[in-house]
Amino acid sequence: MHSPLIPKRFAGLPGTAACLAGALICFPCCAEPLPLWEAGAGVATLKLPDYRGSDQTTSYILPIPYLVYRGEFLKADRNGVRTMLFANDTVEVNFSVNGTLPVNSKDNAARRGMPDLKPTVELGANVSVNLWKSAAQDMKLDFRAPMRTAITVESSPRQIGWLFSPSLNLDVRNPAGFSGWNLGILAAPLFNSRKYNAHFYSVSSTEAATGRPAYVATGGYSGTQITMALSRRFARHWVGGFLRYDTLAGAVFADSPLVRQRSAMSAGVAVTWMFGESSTLVNVNE
Predict the structure, then answer these.
(1) Which of 68, 186, 189, 281 could disulfide-link 38, Cβ–Cβ 3.0 to 4.6 Å?
(2) Is 54 exposed, middle or buried (0-12, 13-18, 19+ CB in 10 A)?
(3) Which alpha helices (H) appear in 59-177, and where do they start and end?
(4) What is the distance between the terminal CA atoms of the chain, rounded to a whole angstrom?
């Protein structure tokens, strides 16, 4: 099932479904017959920082699409829009998509006078390895290792570097006896290339200003994110929410003048209604 919380900042990106993969990660661990495709719509409310390290946040209330496709090779679900390259009971390799938000610099005090940050789309491969499953098949622990390249979404797209975020992902079905609910916890250190960090955190000599000295960002460790998500699917609708803690402690760009806050919380809740589904059922581990 696709995680339908899609921030306004991601609207229009090719990887819309994938943008929330790190936010709503919970899913049941047992195979069950589900429709080949589902379609619907809903509404979400979100509170997010302008960018990692920003001390300004934006709240959104917005309509959201809900689309799931559970094909053998092409999938659109909670883990994004992706093509299955290889899969067995333990290892899965797929092509996936993610993205980041645009920032209007005139609305952000730290970046005022600097060029706007264009939205980006991130393309790459992800390897997922199952490390453990409970005997009852209601809990599982996976190791995931996505590596992507980021490209700006504009009239003349630019490649702005690479990202690597190995993570541990724990999924629990029916947590604490709450039947039908699914809990997910994901912890991921982030590693970015110099070019990627420079795009977000470097300040050139011509962009320097009072309180914003010139700064050259380097590549390497770029902080850690911990996400908790809770969701439940009902007969004709789905509800879910997430809470994410993001820390830049120890990040190679933590001293950038564009970093105004080294830790932040993001949160969101959503409800969607399904208005159509396939009569064809497929067995999937969702």
Answers:
(1) 68
(2) buried
(3) none
(4) 7
C-alpha span between 286 and 137 (Å, rounded): 12
Q: Which amino acid is at 122?
A: E
For 14-23, 26-35, 61-70, which range has the lowest pLDDT when averaged over its residues? 14-23
**145 within 8 A of 131, measured Cβ to Cβ:** no
Separation of alpha carbons 14 and 99, rounded Å: 9
**Domain residue ranges in the chain:** 8-285
- The first and second tokens of residue 207, run together, are 């962009």
CATH number of 8-285: 2.40.230.20
User: What 3-state DSSP class applies to 105?
Assistant: helix
Q: Rounded distance, CA 87 to CA 128, Å?
A: 9
User: What backbone torsions phi and psi does residue 105 show, to the nearest 5 degrees?
Assistant: -60, -25
Whether the predicted model's global pTM rises above the 0.85 cut: no
5: nearest Cα among 286, 274, 270: 270
Helix (H, G, I), strand (E, B) or coil at 23: coil
* Look-up of token digits 């060029």: 115
Share the mean pLDDT of the chain. 84
Copy the structure tokens of residue 39: 């379609």
3-state secondary structure of 114: coil
Q: Are 53 and 260 in contact (CB under 8 A)?
A: yes
DSSP tag of 208: -
Structure tokens at 44: 């979400």
For 78-116, write each residue's pLDDT tens digit. 545 555 555 577 888 887 778 887 899 999 999 999 999
Residue 232 sits at the vertex; the CA angle it makes with 278 and 2, to the nearest 5 degrees, is: 50
Q: Are 202 and 215 in contact (CB under 8 A)?
A: yes
What is the token pair recorded at 186? 């994901």
| Of 17-26, 81-90, 133-142, 148-157, the least confident | 17-26
